[in-house]
Amino acid sequence: MDMPLYSVVIPAYNEEEVIGETYKRLTAVMQGMGETYELIFVNDGSRDKTAEIIAGFCATDSNVRLINFSRNFGHMPAITAGMDNVRGQAIFVIDADLQDPPELFPEMAARWKEGYHVAYGKRVKRKGESWFKKITAKFFYRFIRRLTTVDLPPDTGEFRLIDRRVCDAVSRLPEKHRYIRGLVSWVGFKQVAVEYVREERFAGKTKYPFRKMVSFALDAVTAFSYKPLKLATTLGFFISLVSFIYLVVIVYQRFFTDMLISGWATTVGVVLFSQGIVLMILGLMGEYIGRIYDEIKNRPTYIIMEIVGQNEDDNRLDNRPVN
Ligand code: UDP
Ligand code: MG
Predict the structure, then answer these.
(1) For the whole model, what pTM was predicted?
(2) What is the arrangement of strands in the sheet containing 37-43, beginning at the earlier edge strand?
């Protein structure tokens, strides 16, 4: 089969309410661009009808391919699997929930044709998300920029166009906890922002509950900065300094004044405070060590159960790199 010019990677987890509309909007945009294309849906172990609905598209539309995971692996592994299996020269990554408008593809493609390798969507506004999500997101993107030397553009998700060379470079990075937007920045090349307004979900609920948001943020921080580990040094130094000054004060009070030195409350306060700090830093180290452990176990980022659609012969799993 001829290689398409464009590939679109769409991760989907329990998206039965939107996936039909997503397919329609994507197809309209891609047809409008007038070039060959493929839509690669990655079904991340959905428990609803997502897989059946997409398999239905495959049956009637030769531009559609479906990668079925063996279970739920997560948003980043789903995008990784898509990127590992593209055939196009330029790759669009877009969520299944239509928060990011596919109508921006032509503008991204125009940037690509001008010679940029990455055209990433930058959110100038987010609609229909909770104030909590907006505030934490805003804080997070600025915080992580300060922590790392990699140029991570703020207010940018996975919605973007990437050149095949960038896609291959990212695919070759072997790490398991994949903060993909960070990896794409890390590999370099010529990158440009395309601004857009992030919409409300077309239907369905967010698949990122608070717990997943936290582990996602930790993946990003641990993968791109050691600075949190230096917190121990800084805090330790600071606390030693303060304690030393306090000690001098106590000695002075004991020998040169009649003041009584208070006992129990101060002691308990100091012990609990320092214990809290020590435990916090141990926990922080644990986050890094756990991820080191995951890396050396070297389990794959995802497992593909089957690939449906397009030229089925090309889809033999033994041909594919296992990441
Ligand atoms: N997603 C996924 N696996 C997961 C969670 C999410 O493939 O375990 C997909 C989901 O279907 C959607 C995209 O990742 O296409 C982003 O998820 P969502 O819209 O729920 O996140 P939010 O936009 O609320 O941050
Ligand atoms: Mg969303």
Answers:
(1) 0.83
(2) 191-198, 118-126, 156-163, 90-93, 6-12, 37-43, 64-69, 304-308
User: Which numbered ligand comes closest to the C-alpha of 158?
Assistant: 1
Distance CA 140, CA 154 (A): 9
Q: Is ligand 1 within 6 A of the CB of residue 16?
A: no
Indicate the pairing of strand 156-163 with strand 90-93.
antiparallel
Residue 1 DSSP SS3: coil
240 CA distance to ligand 1 middle (Å)? 45
CA 33/CA 96 separation, integer angstroms = 20
- Rounded-to-integer distance, Cα 68 and Cα 217, Å: 26
* 136 backbone dihedrals φ, ψ, rounded to 5°: -65, -40
| C-alpha to C-alpha distance for 273 and 1, rounded to whole angstroms | 66
Determine contact, residues 308/65, Cβ cutoff 8 Å.
yes
What is the residue-level pLDDT of the chain in tens, covering all 323 positions?
578 899 999 999 999 999 999 999 999 999 999 999 999 999 999 999 999 999 999 999 999 999 999 999 999 999 999 999 999 999 999 999 999 999 999 999 999 999 999 999 998 888 877 888 888 888 888 888 888 888 888 888 899 999 999 999 999 999 999 999 999 999 999 999 999 888 888 888 888 888 888 888 899 999 999 888 888 888 888 888 988 898 888 888 888 888 776 677 778 888 888 888 889 889 999 999 999 999 999 999 999 999 998 666 555 555 455 44
Count of CB atoms situated within 10 Å of the CB of 278:
13
Q: Of the candidates 99, 54, 93, 125, which has an alpha carbon nearest to the alpha carbon of residue 202?
A: 99
Ligand 1 pocket residue status of 108, Cβ below 6 Å: no
- For 132, the token pair is 């909590």
Q: Rounded to the nearest whole angstrom, what is the distance from the C-alpha of residue 134 to the centroid of ligand 2?
A: 13
Ligand 1 near 74 CB (within 6 A):
yes
Amino acid making up residue 83: M
Tokens standing for residue 264: 């129990």
Residue pair 111/121 in contact (Cβ under 8 Å)? The answer is no
Q: How many CA atoms lie within 13 A of 73 on its CB side?
A: 25
